[in-house]
Design a protein that fits this description.
With 290 residues, this protein is mainly α. It has helices spanning 2-7, 50-64, 71-87, 105-123, 132-149, 173-177, 182-196, 216-228, 232-245, 271-285; strands spanning 24-26, 37-39, 151-152, 157-158, 197-198, 201-202, 214-215, 256-257, 264-265. The protein has a domain at 152-290. The protein contains ten helices and nine strands. The strands form four sheets. A three-stranded antiparallel sheet has the order 7-8-9. It has a two-stranded antiparallel ribbon with strand order 1-2. A two-stranded antiparallel sheet has the order 3-4.
Length: 290
């Protein structure tokens, strides 16, 4: 909360709480001569609507675990909810930090998530109620916009973004966020398996197979989503197959894997892969998030 107050809600911060510098490519060989070798982060100057959902979901879990927001934090979060209610109509770079800004479906869902949690927090006396009704109205407008513009009747799935046919595996997170109708979400998961799945793995989004391997967190997200929708057998099957494929004895997961050879690709170890794995396991075990 201190860093948000100092710098605004950014995608990432340095370890000491500052702004992340722009990228700098270094003229040195990478692992197995991979390129580029780079410091900084391209997301430092991007806007991603997902930050709103992340912040308010974290706040909601904090309160659900019998904690109370202090007045300064509540005021800051109220201003952040107002900001989300204003900017959700804008394009952003999305969860995958893409250079082309679009009306990404996952980004809109994250804005819905943020305002839904803000309304719940206000109703519980954790946030000021001055703008509560506005947050509620914008939450419902976001949901209507998504169902109108981001759903494909022909493909029976939520799209990557409107007016194209691509898919995005991160839309599986909508189930965890509590967005949407179960039948549409289940149909979307089937489409993700069909179009982005290769063996036990999944690509991040349509077309990315030309430049990278499968993204491990996506498969764990899909397993978790199936479990939350009551598809326990399919969730367990998905989790078992990918866990067996990733068996390297030491239990460390990478960012990606080559679906043909199983070779690890990308960052190693990758915290997001492990977090997504734990979330799927906790969901199947019925673990209390506190």
């Amino acid at each position: 909360m201190k860093r948000i107050g100092e710098h605004g809600a950014l995608v990432c911060y340095t370890l000491d709480g500052g702004r992340v510098p722009d990228t700098l490519d270094l003229d040195v060989p990478g692992y197995r001569r991979s390129q580029p070798v780079r410091t900084g982060n391209t997301a430092t100057g991007q806007h991603q609507h997902g930050i709103y959902g992340d912040i308010f979901e974290t706040t909601s879990r904090f309160v659900n675990c019998s904690n109370v927001l202090d007045a300064a934090s509540a005021e800051l979060l109220s201003r952040l909810a107002d900001r989300c209610a204003d900017v959700w109509r804008m394009k952003d770079s999305g969860i995958w930090e893409l250079p082309e800004e679009q009306h990404y479906t996952n980004s809109k869902i994250s804005c819905w998530q943020a305002l839904a949690r803000a309304v719940e927090l206000a109703d519980r006396g954790q946030l000021p109620t001055t703008c509560r009704d506005r947050w509620s109205r914008e939450r419902d407008r976001i949901a209507e916009w998504i169902e109108t513009h981001c759903w494909s009747d022909r493909k029976q799935t939520y799209l990557f973004y409107p007016d194209q046919d691509g898919l995005d595996a991160s839309v599986a997170l909508a189930v965890r966020f509590g967005f949407g109708k179960p039948e549409r979400l289940a149909s979307t998961l089937d489409a993700l398996d069909r179009e982005l799945g290769v063996g036990p793995y999944h690509y991040r989004y349509s077309g990315v197979h030309r430049e990278e391997g499968c993204f491990l967190a996506c498969t764990f997200w899909i397993a978790e989503a199936r479990a939350l929708l009551g598809q326990r057998d399919r969730a367990e099957e998905t989790l078992r197959e990918v866990t067996e494929a990733l068996d390297r004895a030491v239990g460390i997961f990478s960012e990606m894997a080559d679906p043909q050879t199983g070779r690890y690709l990308g960052n190693l170890p990758q915290g997001l892969s492990h977090l997504a794995h734990l979330m799927a396991l906790d969901t199947l075990a019925g673990t209390d998030p506190c």
